[in-house]
């Protein structure tokens, strides 16, 4: 089910009918699933976002600065990793992987791709974004309304904490957690208890930019990749007001990786080299890219 379930949820938003979600939740793979995916594919670029043109083209027409990229290195990535969260700190890559029965938190050697440590979640949890807060790692779950708090050094789970939203992406700006839920909203939460301090709506020219997914906060800007957009792009958000400061056009980065639900998802920042590490669900490489403005 997985991606079709997500699609059903989004379809439920577009056509306010919970039926899609329930049907997909309970059915085996089959014609109906393919039908739901087909309809969703048809609808996504227009109905779900209310746009009648691809997002990159829309942003270009609205004068949002377009940044290009240069690949400076690439590294092996576990092809079974359904990447939902990525961060790089102290020379170590931390990765959160999703799907029911396959979710995990990993510590990974970037250069070799070797999984140095892997914490498997209970089968009922679908892991989502991760961030570092103090000496801890916070990991969201998609629909379980809980987040896990781990010791960063040992990856020992310290806490299972109620989380009031659907969990997608998460990052930390030095004071607040910034979280996405698949919509155009970013919320700012107190890391100690998830109290909502404020929220912003990401929009350009009155058009909401939704499907915000994996996040990375870097030097006063929030980088977000857009889920399932058929365009590999990252939007650069002004956390003060939700305006767009630019977008990174990753077209051509990994054409060979594409297929089904294996979409771009995963942004980490290496502050030493000031480069980004990006990957996707079940991609075979992690790419180190330099953003060129
Ligand atoms: Ca990230």
List its salient traits.
293 residues, alpha+beta, Methylamine Dehydrogenase, Chain H, 2 domains, 8-stranded mixed sheet, 4-stranded antiparallel sheet, 4 helices, 22 strands, globular, binds calcium ion
Structure in words:
By secondary structure, the chain is α+β, with helices and mostly antiparallel strands. The protein folds into 2 domains: 2-48, no CATH class; 55-292, YVTN repeat-like/Quinoprotein amine dehydrogenase (Methylamine Dehydrogenase, Chain H). It is 16% helix and 43% strand. It contains 4 helices and 22 strands. It has helices at residues 2-14, 19-26, 31-48, 55-61; strands at 66-76, 83-89, 92-97, 104-108, 115-120, 127-133, 136-141, 146-151, 157-162, 170-172, 177-180, 185-189, 196-201, 203-204, 207-208, 212-218, 221-226, 233-237, 244-249, 264-270, 275-280, 285-292. Strands 16-17-18-19-1-22-21-20 form an 8-stranded mixed β-sheet. A hairpin with a 6-residue loop joins strand 4 and strand 5 (115-120). The longest helix is centred in the N-terminal third of the chain and has 18 residues, at 31-48. It binds calcium ion (CA). Residues 85-87, 171, 214-216, 267-268 line the site of calcium ion. The site of calcium ion has 9 residues, from strand 2, strand 16 and strand 20.
């Amino acid at each position: 089910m997985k991606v079709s379930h997500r699609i059903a949820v989004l379809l439920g938003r577009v056509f306010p009918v919970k039926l899609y979600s329930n049907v997909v939740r309970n059915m085996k793979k089959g014609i109906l699933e393919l039908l739901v995916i087909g309809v969703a594919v048809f609808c996504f670029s227009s109905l779900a976002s209310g746009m009648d043109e691809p997002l990159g083209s829309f942003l270009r027409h609205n004068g949002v600065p377009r940044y290009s990229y240069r690949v400076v290195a690439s590294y092996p990535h576990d092809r079974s990793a359904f990447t939902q969260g990525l961060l790089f700190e102290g020379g170590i890559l931390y990765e959160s992987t999703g799907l029911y029965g396959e979710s995990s938190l990993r510590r990974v050697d970037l250069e070799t791709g070797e999984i140095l440590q892997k914490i498997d979640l209970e089968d009922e949890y679908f892991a989502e974004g991760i961030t570092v807060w103090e000496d801890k790692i916070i990991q969201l779950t998609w629909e379980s309304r809980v987040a896990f708090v781990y010791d960063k050094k040992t990856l020992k789970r310290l806490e299972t904490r109620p989380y009031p939203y659907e969990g997608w992406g998460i990052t930390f700006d030095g004071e607040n957690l910034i979280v996405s839920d698949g919509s155009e909203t970013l919320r700012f939460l107190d890391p100690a208890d998830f109290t909502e301090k404020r929220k912003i709506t990401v929009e350009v020219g009155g058009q909401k930019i939704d499907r915000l997914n994996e996040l990375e906060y870097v030097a006063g800007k929030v980088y977000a990749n857009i889920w399932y957009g058929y365009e590999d792009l990252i939007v650069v958000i002004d956390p003060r007001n939700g305006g767009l400061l630019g977008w990174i056009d990753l077209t051509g980065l990994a054409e060979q990786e594409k297929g089904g639900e294996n979409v771009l998802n995963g942004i980490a920042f290496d502050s030493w080299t000031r480069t980004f590490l990006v990957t996707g669900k079940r991609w075979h490489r992690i790419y180190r890219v330099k953003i060129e403005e």
